[in-house]
Amino acid sequence: MAGSYKHVVTQNGNLRSNESFVDMIENLGDAYEMAEEMYGMIWYIAYHFGAPGAPLSEVKAIVEVAQKNYKEGLEMAKEVNRQR
Length: 84
Description:
The chain has helices spanning 5-8, 18-24, 28-50, 56-68, 70-82. Helix 3 (28-50) packs across helix 4. The chain is built from five helices and no strands.
């Protein structure tokens, strides 16, 4: 896959800088593939780890909460990757 999660995350798990990201993604098709992969990952995680077996309406609510709090998620990722 030309545009993927691995293209926007560094070897130590951090999100690439904007400049580095632009170097890794060659065109909008690559950017879309990356967004599609990450979108699928969000829903997979919400269902399998947030509400296994729950109705999809509950999974949707988890995804909406995550969207509203994504900056907290970015801070968690920085902390986890700082400890590596």
